[in-house]
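Listing S7. Sequence submitted for prediction.
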Amino acid sequence: MPTGRLEILVEPFAENDPGPHALAIVEAARQAGLGVDLGPFATVITGDLAALTGLLSTATAASLDAGATALQIRLETT
């Protein structure tokens, strides 16, 4: 199976305070069993490409429901 890397930048951005809108993406990724790294500017999620594409809807909806005002998404195969 192909693997991938999903990078999601969540706004509003506050340095050292990811807020519930960013943490919602982290939680969705962990529940999906994917590797997740909450970085200073974006959250990076790695794993099976099919799982990453499946996560997009769930994670973005959770983030928007938790107060995100904008999301920038980059998905690449590895």
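Caption to Listing S7: primary sequence and predicted structure tokens for the chain studied. The first helix runs from residue 19 to 31. The first strand starts at residue 3 and ends at 11.
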